[in-house]
Amino acid sequence: MQADLSPFDALVLMSFGGPEQEEDVLPFLQNVTAGRGIPDERLKEVGEHYYQFGGRSPINEQNRSLLEALSRELETRGITTPLLWGNRNWKPFLADAVRSEHQRSGARKFLAIDTSAYSSYSSCRQYREDFAAAQTQLLTEGIHVDFEKIRQYYNHPGFAQAQLSCVREALEQYRAATGSLDPDDYRVLYVTHSIPSTMQENSERHTNGYRAQHEELIDWLSTELEPAYGRVESELVYCSRSGSPHTPWLEPDINDRMKELSEKGVGGVVVVPIGFVSDHMEVKYDLDTEAAQTAKDLQMDFVRAATVGIHPEFVAGLIDLAVERAEQVRQAAEEIKKPVVTGTSLSSGSGACSRNCCEGSRLVPTQPNWPAPSR
Ligand SMILES: CC1=C(CCC(=O)O)c2cc3nc(cc4[nH]c(cc5[nH]c(cc1n2)c(C)c5CCC(=O)O)c(CCC(=O)O)c4C)C(CCC(=O)O)=C3C
Ligand SMILES: [Fe+2]
């Protein structure tokens, strides 16, 4: 593979964003929830999670480390394409980052590396809507930019292998802490962000869907673990449900499931946040604080696996994915063989999921792909 990112002028690490100090928390939450119908009580509760950490989300530090690691990887490969950082909900905002890079270097074509691995409206399509919104905003200033993104990478070898070493380490940590790894005594709980059931259904129309992608990766991980660990009892559970209690979201919640397991006599859990690429607030609060407390109350052993963070295989994988996307765009061909560890669920068409994937009831322009590029 050619170590070249042409036709792209710049890479942009695209993330959710999070507050840096107490004063940021409310305006951040207003940005996140604008028009999304989240009850006030839930917002207060989530605000408290941030205040408990001094108003500072861990996500920004994580992204700064990832930026550094990605820069080093680019340097190692002799790729000189500039790398910038833009967010959906907090500074540095995507449009601002892109504007300054355009003013600095004339860059017009941006390739985004996003910080979420699976297909769903929240974790994929909404980022593409953000690209279209930034494009529209900058167009009013006479700046024409466009965006592409890397594909969803839940089954890319870089992410999968990094995830596997996180699980192995956690199992060893559990063994060291409890003196055993008897499959009847503990359960591996793979955790991801819950989403509304309608969002799950929308994700299933053009890919195998959010939940099935997690299950595919879990099956692969279990197979990889078997030679060293034999049977590993594991299941997929969810955290961070929001929205109205009357709206169905994916279940079971991790805390509810731990209670059930405890009643069945399971003595401990190894919690693996496969839905999060780094230690977000969901990991720090919902898992390390809340689920850890549930474990204490139930007198269960509790080990939380690391997130992939800046694991070298994950970082190298992200650059592989950027190189792959650039090559697809150069050749105007989607059919370059994609390295995957499992499954073939991502259709060709955009490097993202597909043109129509994860559409909801509102049709909002996306980049890439809808409406079709005018040039
Ligand atoms: C699938 C998914 C990911 C993973 C993919 C990805 O990474 O993109 C993710 C990531 C994140 N979600 C985050 C924060 C929040 N998410 C909220 C609300 C929501 N998330 C949803 C889904 C997801 N969210 C959904 C369906 C909602 C309901 C409202 C809506 O339909 O949009 C709310 C509102 C309050 C609440 O209800 O919790 C907050 C504050 C942060 C930052 C954390 C930090 O500061 O470290 C991150 C990385
Ligand atoms: Fe979220």
Automatic annotation (TrEMBL):
Subcellular localization, per the record?
Answer: Cytoplasm
Q: Give the GO cellular component terms, alphabetically.
A: cytoplasm
Q: Does the keyword Cytoplasm apply?
A: yes
Q: Which GO terms describe its molecular function?
A: ferrochelatase activity; metal ion binding
Q: Report the EC number(s), separated by commas if there are several.
A: 4.99.1.9
Listed binding positions for Fe-coproporphyrin III are 57, 127
Major localization class: cytoplasm
- Residues the record lists as binding Fe(2+): 193, 282
Task: State whether keyword Lipid biosynthesis applies.
Answer: no
| Record pathway | Porphyrin-containing compound metabolism; protoheme biosynthesis
InterPro entries in alphabetical order: Ferrochelatase (IPR001015), Ferrochelatase_C (IPR033644), Ferrochelatase_N (IPR033659)
Q: Which UniProt keywords apply?
A: Cytoplasm, Heme biosynthesis, Iron, Lyase, Metal-binding, Porphyrin biosynthesis
The protein's superkingdom reads: Bacteria
Q: What catalytic activity is recorded?
A: Fe-coproporphyrin III + 2 H(+) = coproporphyrin III + Fe(2+)
Q: Which residues form a coiled coil?
A: none
Q: Name one GO biological process term.
A: heme biosynthetic process
> What family is reported?
Belongs to the ferrochelatase family.
Q: What does this protein do?
A: Involved in coproporphyrin-dependent heme b biosynthesis. Catalyzes the insertion of ferrous iron into coproporphyrin III to form Fe-coproporphyrin III.
The name of this protein is Coproporphyrin III ferrochelatase
Q: Which organism is it from?
A: Glutamicibacter uratoxydans (Arthrobacter uratoxydans)
- Native organism taxonomy: Bacteria, Bacillati, Actinomycetota, Actinomycetes, Micrococcales
Q: Which gene encodes it?
A: hemH_1
